[in-house]
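Me: I keep going back and forth on a fold encoding question. No explanation is needed for now; the record alone will do.

Assistant:
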Amino acid sequence: MAALCETFTLCGLGPSGGVGLGAGVLALEPGPDSDHVLLTDRGRTATLFKVSDQKPLGCWSVKHGQVITCPVVCNFETHEYIAVHDDKVLRIWGDEDVNLDKVFKATLSADVYRIHSLPHGEPLVLFKGGGVRTLDVLLEAPQQEIENFISDEVIKWSEAFLEGQEPILIFATEKDGEYFIYIQKFKLNILHKYKLEQQESSNPLSFTAYIKNQIITLLCLYSNDSIYKVLIPLQQHSEEKEQILSKSLLLKLSVSGSVLKGTSFAVLDKDHVAVLGSLTAFGEESKECLTIWNTKFQTLQTSKELPLGTSGQLWCYGEKFFFTHGKVLTVIIYKCETSSLAAAVGKLKDSQTSDVSFLNWNTLSEEELVVSLQSQQSVTPKSESKMTLRSRRSSVAKVPPDTLTAGQLLLDIKDSASAVVEEGLKQLLSKAQMPDVQATIGCVIPALINRCKTDPMFYPQNFLVQLIQKRELSYSLCPDLMAVALEKKDMHLLQLCLQRFPDIPEEITYACLKLFLSISDDYLERTDVNLDSIICYIDIESNNKGVKNEIVENGFNTELEEFYRDTTFTKETLLKNDGEFCPVGPQKAALLNAVLHSAYSETFLLPHLKDLPAQQAVLFLRYLHYLYVKCSEKINTTLPGVLSPTINQIMDWMCLLLDAHFTVMVMLPEARGLLSSLHKFVRAQVRFYSELNKIEGSLQELQRLKLQKDSQAYSIEVLELI
């Protein structure tokens, strides 16, 4: 069984995407670990992303006039990056390098097609003429002559593996409509050439391969909407120079009269493949979609429509799909389970498995919903299948708790009384250990949200809160939930979503920030807000009474006090601007901390922040200043508490807010003192760290002497710092 799960955006691709990918994506390669990927555009730039944070960690570009001509890869042995620009110029650099003009450079004697990096081996460099070198051998003599085995053929695809300790390279070429497969063994320095059996009136569009037990399995996606399999044993005893590889049909990409015109695909496990392409039905407009197929039972397991279009490229790393969708690079997490016939056809009968299918219940009409429920009833006992849907709806209250199905619950949510719905929701929460409960929740939440939109009196707040607290949910699974919470001004639910959802759009994050800043502290005192993130550094009882909250540890306030003595600010201005007292109530502070905790992209958030009213921007900046001072009082610059903002989050938001409102801040009289205070405070810190830097060498020397000298049980030493 396979399913598509959480979806989120990794980065933008257009001119406003912030990553310089307006020319399109050349390739996506794995980074130094499983949470990093390397993105190469069809121009000058390579970018390293941390997928879980959806943020770039590094970006490198070649000079204007130069073009990166093959995907940038990571050398897993040295954690360095390797690129080729203008076909022959090799560059190697590390994370700390900024300017590619100053990193290692080698000009090669032949054009490079691709570099393949292996997890426990030296990278392999494949040249356009078919010659192959390991990177270390190539760097010994960059101008060494490279063989040209395929002068009239064009390389279409290549891949590298490790079989035992031996690197194996396979690549496909094309000449006059004929396709050839080459396999390079490095230990014996042997190159095998094969001819791929021709398929009448169709050509291969995409290749992929894997190796197991000394056999390479080559999969080919053809233009006749089929995937073929070719087995190539590594142990060859034939003396033929050019053997013909026969292929067998693995999968026909058609279902219920619709045909998938695939453009690229990936192998997920021994029984599942993912195909990206256009699903076409007779008399209907084609729709681009991502699909997962079961090759063992020839069934379509799941699909996702992509209305904004794709580039036709698909990458798969670490149970995540990567592909372009419109003007963004999208990531979808997937899962694959052991294949069985019952699971493949959606009729898996298990005493502990719910009856929900992987359907988008939110988009089904009432008639389609009834049909879907009837099809699910076909796997229930005969006595139950005789009941009509109408009788099941009317007698739902009499059904024992352990027999309530997802279909019944969905029908109840549609128009039943709140008490009936709440009872069904309690039963759903009590089934937390069921294997398919996550899929059930994915169906139930959209139905609840739709009911909330149409019925103003219906709002199961307690259930929604429990659901977010107990389950691993995301914004993409319930995209309208936060919109409803904003409309209801449900502060507790919004706080939980900001803390737990990893993929909240910047527009929603801004809407939450604006709401939190606009609501009065008096109103928030009557709301249920989790104060765990502020309880350890804000004195709730004395916060609004001008009482100092904590003892200063690092002594930064000394210079600030001197600064204030030299100014003409009033006492009221001092209290507002010195950052010593929290400018907002504890509930509002906890809500703002949730905003600081949420992930965002500066490129997409900045335009929204510019719309923040000036008074709210000043208030938010005062609170950030307060947090900044609090962090600086601590020796480790870390605030206590659960989910408290870090110094990096505070600084990032402060810079972002100043970028969005600097002109307004300068013009507002009430903000000038705050900006001046920030300036003085930062200057005091810079001076403090500058003094620390002066004695850094002496401290390191003391540490070295301490390690070298083995002191007795008791000794007195006098060390002089010069």
Notes: Residues 406-481 form one domain. The first helix runs from residue 135 to 140.
